[in-house]
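ABC transporter, ATP-binding protein
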Amino acid sequence: MIEIRDLYKYYGDRRAVGPLSFTIEAGEIVGLLGLNGAGKTTTLRILACDLLPSSGTVLVDGLDVVDNPHEVRSRIGYLPDRPPLYDEMTPRDFLAFAAKLRGMDGSTAEKRVPEVLEMTELGGVADDAISSLSHGFKQRVGIAQAIVHKPRLLVLDEPISGLDPVQIVEMRRLLRNLKGELTILLSSHILSEISETSDRILVIRDGTIGAQGTPEELSTKLLEGVRFEITVVGGSVAVGSAAEVLRSVEGVLAVEPTSSTEPGEARAFRVEASRDVRAALVSTLVARGLGVVDLRRSERELETVFLRLSAGTGRAGAEEGALPPTPPSGGATPQRKKEKREASEAETTKAETRRAKSEAEAKKTEAEAKKAKDEEDEGEST
């Protein structure tokens, strides 16, 4: 679906992205994780044909973003970090407008807009002014405009930024519901949220991929283990033996009660394991007559993973050496390819203009000759 090879983007002598290479398969939800300034937005803008790369190859469905920008755009739905909304319009009118911009005919758009309103759970505010909507609903409208033309790829830049906890849960649910129909690439600097949404995470640091994998794989690789927080309920005697039950699960390395107290006959534990053992934990506890009311990845673990992934020396003093101040040479750069294509199109336009002018002059000459002949015939008849 997406293939990026040796991508570089420079602003003058400053390298914003590169070397960057990764692939994304159809149907995946992939998170692009990194600190502010790591290169997330630049990468997404290049994918969305909003920015030209300095060098490298970027393919969407086998189409190059430089050589085939119009075809690529038709396959992509893009939500920048600031949704491109018109506050005076309603979501319904705005989606109809977006559909028209995407080239959809009136009858097709008329059927599609209600479908998208339902998919994004905007039906209740479809006819309210966008200016009156909460930030969470505005983000939904932004996603709705990105999918109204039925793209194959959805590119979202920080879709969770600025949302409150309830809106985050709703956005997470929305993205999961869209997963079956779309391939999704979203960026964020919040590991805990991106790990809840994504099948796989790409960690970008200083414009290049520092690590990639599932949240569990990244945790295991960096922390030599996975940490969970689990809350168990049951009879007082059963709960008292919960720690031993947890320790009996294969792969569990350590179990410790947390300092927090739970109401009633509930007890919380922190579990460290060599791999993802959540399914085994639940089945073992249930078999012993215990219930599980909460099971989640440890927030402390996620914070530690993110800090380690984001750590590193600056560009100038990187251990692997500073990257070249100019793009790699060899072959035409996307900018040169674009200039060549535009020059060719300009020559074609000039040729067509000359041909049209020549045809017009020929028709004028023919008309003048016909007029002269008619006048001559009229004189002879007189």
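thats it. The chain has a mean pLDDT of 83. The chain is about 45% helix and 25% strand. bye
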